[in-house]
Amino acid sequence: MVAVAAPLRAVDGHAAAGSDENRLFAADASADVRYLHRWIGQRNDSGGRPFAIVDKKQARMHIFDERQALVGSSVVLTGATPGDESVPGVGQRAQTGQIAANERTTPAGRFASQPGRNLKGEDIVWFDYDAALAIHRLRPDASYASRSKRLASATPDDNRASLGCVVVPVEFYQQVVQRWLGARRGVVYVLPERRPVQALWPHDAPAIAGLSDEDA
Questions:
Q1: Nearest to residue 42, comparing CAs of 168, 211, 205, 216?
Q2: Measured between alpha carbons, how far is residue 113 from residues 29, 57, 126, 134 in Å?
Q3: Planar angle of CA 115, 119, 120, nearest 5 degrees
Q4: pTM for the complete prediction?
Q5: Which of 6, 16, 131, 191 is placed for a possible disulfide with 86 were both Cys, Cβ 3.0 to 4.6 Å?
Q6: Rounded to an integer, what distance in angstroms lies between the CA atom of residue 59 and that of residue 199?
Q7: pLDDT tens track of the chain, all 216 residues?
């Protein structure tokens, strides 16, 4: 059991079989998150790797172990601009911080994640390297105070604050993200916000064999 303070929620990933739906309800997971979790499980889409589901509309991220059991949930910050696509070339512009307001999106989709470091040597979890997008902890920079307030607010309406990365509280990163996604390859699923979840993960999609080395 990982003990963390509200608004975080971390859970023991070794619960009895059949309790996943109840645990997602307890973690305030949306219907879209619960649908995608079932979809992943039915098809073994994560290929036996840990994975995260990012719900931009609810400003929350849920992390699951390799057995698809919930191990932690947290409020997050996502791209300041709503949208489900990345603008071409945004990854290059991110290196200098010159990203226009309309380019600050967190794209929807399925991404193979891997631990790494940014140009400053900070350990992060890449989920779209070409677009310079990662899961990272809240940083102690000029935006720390305002971003802390956004993370602590009771509504997801003000959690649009990043250049496109998924930003989590420091404690959650250290206790949950690092353990499950920061030490191995995984999968990050980002729910769409401008179309139904079924548009990306339809009911009748076939099962896959799992992740190849190239995918992961």
A1: 205
A2: 22, 21, 5, 9
A3: 95
A4: 0.86
A5: 131
A6: 20
A7: 233 433 445 544 333 344 677 888 788 899 999 999 999 999 999 999 999 999 999 999 999 999 999 999 999 999 999 999 888 767 666 666 677 677 789 999 999 999 999 988 999 999 999 888 999 999 988 888 989 999 999 899 999 999 899 999 999 999 999 999 999 999 999 999 999 999 999 988 776 544 544 454
55 forms beta bridges with: 60
Which residue is it, tokens 């990272």? Answer: 136
HEC states along the chain? CCCCCCCCEECCCCCCCCCHHHHHHHCCCCHHHHHHHHHHHHHCCCCCCCEEEEECCCCEEEEECCCCCEEEEEECEEECCCCCCCCCCHHHHHCCCCCCHHHCCCCCEEEEEEEEECCCCCEEEEEEHHHCEEEEECCCCCCHHHHHHHHHCCCHHHCEEECCCEEECHHHHHHHHHHHCCCCCEEEEECCCCCCHHHCCCCCCCCCCCCCCCCC
For 35, the token pair is: 């649908």
